[in-house]
Amino acid sequence: MKDIRGLSVTLIIWLCLALPISAANCTASSVARLSVFGAEVLNVSASHEPAFGDIPGNDVCSFTVTITHPGTGDRVNNYISVPLQGWNGRFQGIGGGGYAAGTLSDAAPQTALGYSTGATDAGHDTSSDAVDDASPWALLSDGNVDQNLLLNFARRSLHDMTVIGKAISEDFSGKRVEFSYWNGCSTGGREGLAIAQYYPSDYDGIIANAPAIQWNDFTPAQQWPYTVQNNEGYVLSPSEFQAAVTAAIAACDGLDGFLDGIISAPALCDFTAQRLIGSNLPCSGTSNCTFSQQAADVIDKIWQGPRTPRGDFLWYGLPKGANFSALAPNLANSSEPQPFLISDSWFKGFLAKNLNFSTANISYTEFTDFFLQGHLQYDSIIGDASPDLRPFKEHGGKMITWQGLADQLIMPQGTQLYYEKIQNLDRSVHDFYRQFYSPGVGHCGGGIGVTPTHQLEQLRAWVENGTAPDLLQAGSAYPVNASNDLAVGSNNVRFQALCPYPQVSKYSGAGDPTSSGSYEGQAGMGADMVPQQDDAVTVCVRTIAGMNASALAELQTDHCGPV
Length: 563
Ligand SMILES: *[C@@H]1O[C@H](CO)[C@@H](O)[C@H](O)[C@H]1NC(C)=O
Ligand SMILES: *[C@@H]1O[C@H](CO)[C@@H](O)[C@H](O)[C@H]1NC(C)=O
Ligand SMILES: *[C@@H]1O[C@H](CO)[C@@H](O)[C@H](O)[C@H]1NC(C)=O
Ligand SMILES: *[C@@H]1O[C@H](CO)[C@@H](O)[C@H](O)[C@H]1NC(C)=O
Ligand SMILES: *[C@@H]1O[C@H](CO)[C@@H](O)[C@H](O)[C@H]1NC(C)=O
Ligand SMILES: *[C@@H]1O[C@H](CO)[C@@H](O)[C@H](O)[C@H]1NC(C)=O
Ligand SMILES: *[C@@H]1O[C@H](CO)[C@@H](O)[C@H](O)[C@H]1NC(C)=O
Ligand SMILES: *[C@@H]1O[C@H](CO)[C@@H](O)[C@H](O)[C@H]1NC(C)=O
Ligand SMILES: *[C@@H]1O[C@H](CO)[C@@H](O)[C@H](O)[C@H]1NC(C)=O
Ligand SMILES: *[C@@H]1O[C@H](CO)[C@@H](O)[C@H](O)[C@H]1NC(C)=O
Ligand SMILES: [Ca+2]
What we know:
The protein is an alpha/beta fold.
């Protein structure tokens, strides 16, 4: 009897394997009735896409599942794509950016690699405008925030989408989801950390890069450059910003021991714009030709970060070396300061709760009131920085964050602060969550520094094989000492391994600076939050998961320094 049952199971497995899934299988009825706790499924549709994302051979079945949370009137669309052939048994949740809960265009490259993917619109528009602007959905009426859509955006829709995505992947393919991964940067990074906190068994591995956690704190802080310029009555010109960033890099480049046009030790950089007063500037039209006291004061306030009128800390400022043009856009040399759209939208919709509100007139006192109220009103909804990750750890989850140390949108110190808080609660955080910082790199990329090249592969090796990422492989398309505006190809020309926080990769002073082997880890350089105990050089490790044999041999030469 037992044998016969075994035989029939084998037969069924054999039949499933024998019947290929074809385009004809791509119908809404090919998936079983979906059940999503807390929601009602309104509609399921399916469409066959033989070249998903215009990638030849990227043959997928894409499902759109519309759900509602009864009593709220919302309509949330979930976009799930499953490869017709060669599904690798892994589901990948796709993170969003700005106010978009999911970046749909990020799915196709992942299905091409064999993953099934899922993204959600969280019940609001996902068009490109929707990234910067929450005004279409922030309010039910004046003064009346749509808490339901905010909760969808903060976390609930991520879990609903994950339940739906896994169920569809399994129903459609007739095989189990073996492992699941979250992949996101910025809002997508926040979402990854929110999942680790609120839905700790949804994913086995999480990529949570440049995370927009502490959303209710750093988003108001993004408005600080605008508020400072308004209150000081001084509009900085692009050439004043440029001069300040260039001078800061020149002053602090060498603090990390290597002149390469990159500040790798921003915490050690005490350059202030006061040193530029009276220096010459490129000028045109009405813009100033010498660096003024007022310009220096405005820039130093932006670097310092938001403070109360009494000078008390509210949040971090832009790191030295980060580009000002995102948070203080002034490309047209306007005579009025211009705000950053995402933070301006947050002030109007969620803080003032009035889309007509003029953010130009916010005084330093009002800024403080908005900041503190925003912290109180939204921390439990979208702060997403609870340090208790024990359930995620017990689930066996593994997580990797990387962030640029010249991030021009999200202050990396907040990400480091979060790690410190986790570590205060659990000294073994390194066993399941590691952070890496890329000197000279902006928000989710950009800049002349190195960015990770194999993050998902290294996360998978950690989850599936237990090989922890002691270093993160990284590369840059720019040669050493390149300027940002240098035209480069898309191929990496140099390689460097990133060390886990609180270490930062540091040139060893010997060897080819375009090769990984010439860098070592040093603590206390990037980390504002870590007390700088000593300057001892700690070499990270000597092997990198997934690195080819010749590159590994190179890394194992003496360039690694003393262990
Ligand atoms: C695909 O369609 C064929 C033909 O309708 C059917 O026999 C087969 O069971 C389907 N496969 C799956 C996995 O649903
Ligand atoms: C379900 O979605 C399909 C495809 O978008 C659409 O044609 C159909 O009208 C929808 N049905 C309902 C009930 O919304
Ligand atoms: C900042 O970014 C702007 C726009 O991308 C660019 O024109 C400018 O050169 C950058 N400035 C610095 C200092 O990198
Ligand atoms: C980078 O440029 C600076 C200033 O020109 C120079 O001193 C330094 O040697 C250069 N570094 C490398 C690695 O070429
Ligand atoms: C030039 O600097 C002066 C003195 O600080 C200041 O009053 C003026 O507003 C500046 N002009 C512009 C166009 O920024
Ligand atoms: C703004 O002014 C700078 C010099 O201060 C000039 O190089 C640039 O072309 C101006 N930009 C625009 C859009 O007018
Ligand atoms: C905002 O402006 C619109 C259109 O002018 C108006 O209908 C609405 O009452 C205004 N809301 C507030 C809170 O002032
Ligand atoms: C800012 O406040 C001033 C004085 O209260 C007022 O005249 C001006 O219209 C306000 N500006 C905006 C954009 O609301
Ligand atoms: C796990 O290790 C095996 C054997 O070395 C290898 O074939 C496989 O690619 C590794 N998997 C991952 C995800 O790194
Ligand atoms: C190994 O990797 C290095 C750097 O990633 C690359 O330059 C080299 O060509 C690779 N060698 C082989 C044999 O793949
Ligand atoms: Ca340097």
